[in-house]
Amino acid sequence: MTDLIRLSAAELAEKLQSGEVTSVEVTQAHLDRIAAVDGAVHAYLHVSAEDALATARDVDARRAAGEQLHPLAGVPIAVKDVVVTKGMPSTAGSKILEGWIPPYDATLVEKIRAAGLPILGKTNMDEFAMGSSTEHSAFGNTHNPWDLDRIPGGSGGGSAAAVAAFEAPLAIGTDTGGSIRQPGAVTGTVGVKPTYGGVSRYGLIAMASSLDQAGPVTRTVLDSALLHELIGGHDPRDSTSIPEPLPALVDAARQGAAGDLSGLKVGVVTQLQGEGYQPGVLARFQESLDLLTQAGAEIVEVSCPSFDAALAAYYLIMPSEASSNLAKFDGMRFGLRVEPEEGPVTAERVMAATRGAGFGDEVKRRVILGTYALSAGYYDAYYGSAQKVRTLIQRDFDAAFAQVDVLVSPTAPTTAFPLGEKLDDPLAMYLNDVATIPANLAGVPGISVPNGLSDDGLPVGFQILAPAKADDRLYRVGAALEAALESAWGGPLLDRAPELG
Q: Is 23 a catalytic residue?
């Protein structure tokens, strides 16, 4: 069953529908893979073998009885641990939620369960999604399957590593400033941040509510489109959910795979290349532009001057929202509770002791920063000014999309760096998201497609951005690039990854 783990979700779906394999066989193959390699990778915080196999048996029985099932029914999936799952631990990578089992499912989990996808388990992440390397998890680092001494990106390094290590064909991530796309770039996987509001946030443990967005983590563009169509759509329980149907994402991916981009205008963002980008990253980017040109696209340079201030604005808006969202973790209602070692047991002292023991250093850093930015006398100077920059970034996107159909850039300025290299330099860590953050500030969709290896032999990502609610353009362009690249390489990029175990 080793070959089963290397098939795409679309290929597995076909074999399941034809009766060539059963969901139990597919699910067990992935559970065996997890048992074999996750000790080295540490992509999972919780493996739900019994529940996954129970779902698989149910799907197999229903399919055998002739029931019409969802196209992905029986294909296993992993879920980032910031998404609440009834009956499974949901920790957001934090000691303050260690052992917490939610009484309800997130909307996207409800959709996954209803469609019959066995949930393999919950994946590791930076605590409360705060990080770019998955080194800020309270439960240990995740390792990059391409080089176990390097980071898998963050905050969703667990989901990306699970997919890259063939421990899951599909996974769910969340993207607040690049936490799906940047791990995709450094692990050689496909990561999609949908339009803000395109996938329900109900049941996501919030970090920054105006920025957070759940999305697919997969090995192919088509697989991302299939998963995106499953989890997307309007949800009345999420006040920010878009009350419109999704565009035809799977059709767009299949159209793009044919390789014809005639009439499409592609804008290269001047501000998202150059200084700070590895030479190998820029070389693969130029090669990908050449492939898009060969497919019929017109490449033009586009300037988005406010993007230069995006990182600074983001690191005021995001911590401000996080400090507000994380106030609920107070030791009073759920999760960790720590009482003071001596003196009176008051609400204030329990809260201080609980948060001091339960939050890691990076979370504390961002909560302090956000609380300061929102404090009296500083609100307008910091948070208010950052929101004005956000408006300018949105206007830059509007102006750019008046000229071109999509915008492109490298996903991340560098390949995966060694574990521990940037832990003591927060600014160096934050700079990993310089190319991904603008999309979150504007709410537009983005995808990272693996586009080769840098000079160090590690994966590189190509980012495509589209206007809000035009997610189908991501899939058309992404699938065309993927097809051209695989034709040039003679197969998927992950075929060139070192074997684990």
A: no
Q: What is the pLDDT of residue 1?
A: 47
Q: Give the active site residue among 94, 132, 155, 224.
A: 155
Closest by CA to 417, choosing from 93, 135, 130, is 135
Please tell me the distance from the alpha carbon of residue 54 to that of residue 39, in angstroms, as a whole number: 24
Return the pLDDT at 427: 87
What's the angle, vertex CA 240, arms to CA 239 and CA 246, rounded to 5?
Answer: 115
Pick the closest to residue 156 from 198, 112, 202, 93 (CA basis). 93
Per-residue pLDDT reduced to its tens digit, 410-434: 999 999 999 999 999 988 899 999 9
Query: Catalytic annotation on 86?
Result: no
Q: What would the pLDDT profile of 195-207 be if each residue is shown by its tens digit?
A: 999 999 999 999 9
Exposed e or buried b for every residue in 204-215, given b needs 16+ CB within 10 A? bbbbbebbbbbb
**pTM (two decimals):** 0.97
Beta bridge pairs of residue 147: 144
447's enclosing H/E stretch is strand 446-453
How does DSSP assign 194-261, residue by residue?
PPTTSB--TTB--S-TTT--EEEEESSHHHHHHHHHHHBS--TT-TTS-SSPPP-HHHHHHHHHTT--
Beta strands at 265-269 and 190-193: parallel, antiparallel or unpaired = unpaired
Element containing residue 449 per DSSP (H, E): strand 446-453
Backbone angles phi, psi at 450, to 5 degrees: -65, 130
Summarize pLDDT for 122-160 with one digit per residue, the tens.
999 999 999 999 999 999 999 999 999 999 999 999 999
Residue 397 CA from chain centroid, whole number? 22
Take residue 208 and report the two structure tokens written for it: 């920054």
What does the mean pLDDT of the chain come to? 96
Q: What is the pLDDT of residue 335?
A: 85
Query: CA separation (Å) from 230 to 4, 92, 225, 420?
Result: 22, 23, 9, 37
Q: Which candidate, 441, 462, 408, places its Cα nearest to that of 281?
A: 462
What pLDDT, on the 0 to 100 scale, is given for residue 333?
82
What's the pLDDT band for 178 if we cut at 50, 70, 90?
very high
- Residue 454 bears catalytic tag: no
Tokens linked to 117: 């996808």
**What is the spatial distance between Cα 120 and Cα 32, in angstroms, rounded to a whole number?**
11
- CATH top-level class for 2-306+391-496? alpha beta
Sign, Cα dihedral of 221, 491, 482, 257: negative
Which one of 8, 23, 48, 80 is the catalytic residue? 80
**What are the boundaries of each domain within the chain?**
2-306+391-496
Rounded mean pLDDT, 217-235: 98
